[in-house]
Amino acid sequence: MAYITLNRKSLKINYNYLQQLFKKNNIEWAPVLKMLCGNKTYLEYVLSLGDEQVCDARLSNLINIKSINPNKETIYIKPPAKRSISKVVKYADVSFNTEFTTIKWLSEEAVKQGKVHRIIIMIELGDLREGILGEHLLDFYHKVFELPNINVTGIGANLNCLSGIMPSKDKLIQLSLYAQLIEARFGKKIDYVTGGSSVMIPLLLKKQIPKGINHFRIGETLFFGIDLFSNKTITKMKDDVFLLNAEIIEITEKPIVPYGEIEKNPSGEILEINPEDYGTTHKRGILDIGLLDIATTDFLEPVDKKITFIGASSDMLVVDLSESSKKYQIGGVVSFKMKYMGALRIMNSKYIDKKLH
Question: Can you tell me where the transmembrane regions are (predicted)?
């Protein structure tokens, strides 16, 4: 069975780096743990690293987090669905919201459970995913303020999550001004102005985060050490927290060009033939992992940079080993680094074993 490893040492380096970065800038932060897909072994390790709040977008994952540490403060980072209201109030200390109707349901459920549920109102800053329009904020807040057992603990925004709109200092100033407007109008303190996700880290490193932004939610940079502006690894962070490892089940010298009548493969692709490849061969390795597990090879990068992809079927991945100086054998392992979406899909696969390293 193919397996994914989480490197504890590398993750701890990344976690400590972020802790120090945010502390130096007087900003609170919360790790986003949806990448772990509720895996208890991984969650236990991450939860042991610090006292910060944690975020997730799946209630089943929040339930696992609370089972490991009932006192850990949890944030549900998407507007709740109606069917999930009771569990959101029970397992999420804070939730993101954009609809008054939903907040009213949360209020009613919080009364039933004898709890005060805290919410963060998400504001639209241009990416056009979740968020209320700024011109509606004061009326919206006024209605929410009258609901029992609801505490508006903050406002926030997301960028670069749907339309690719990148954050800027101006957009963050706009967000912080909304918080000041609410405080001035209603005389209520806004505890958190949560400026965004990993995509904001490059602005922080360049000292371009306005003072009003005091909270971040970080997943991708925590697990991949990446600067999402440059797509390069941040100095002093690690990019090898996750590795995908697949066993070699066949190594054979075969023709580069298949023989027979060519039609679309099961993925709907038609192989393009390079005439120069006729009569040539290469060393092909087959790995015990396929599209059922990884969906696509677009988010995988072989650790051995001399390996290239040939193709994939539902259960097998074919690679070219010809240029590699490493002497691969049957039963050996080929390892891959992954981009965020690749790791997320693979972590969600029940066919991939998960190990701590």
Answer: none
Catalytic residue among 9, 12, 23, 34: 34
Give the side-chain half-sphere CA count within 13 A for 135.
0
Q: 15-50 burial, b if ≥16 CB within 10 A, otherwise e?
A: bebbeebbeebebebbbbbbbbbbbeebbebbbebe
Domain ranges of the chain: 8-228, 242-356
34 flagged as catalytic: yes
Q: Which CATH number is 242-356 given?
A: 2.40.30
CA distances from 246 to 5, 29, 317, 343 (A): 11, 35, 9, 14
Question: 8-228 has which CATH code?
Answer: 3.20.20.10
Distance CA 248, CA 316 (A): 10
As given in the structure block, the two tokens for residue 84 are 């999930």
Which residues, 6 or more positions from 234, have their beta carbon under 8 angstroms from its beta carbon?
17, 201, 205, 221, 225, 226, 227
Residues 147-198 have pLDDT tens digits of 999 999 999 998 888 888 888 889 999 999 999 999 999 998 999 999 878 9
Between CA 333 and CA 159 the distance in angstroms is 38
54-108 residue pLDDT tens:
999 999 999 999 999 999 999 999 999 999 999 999 999 999 999 999 999 999 9
Is 139 strand, coil or helix? helix
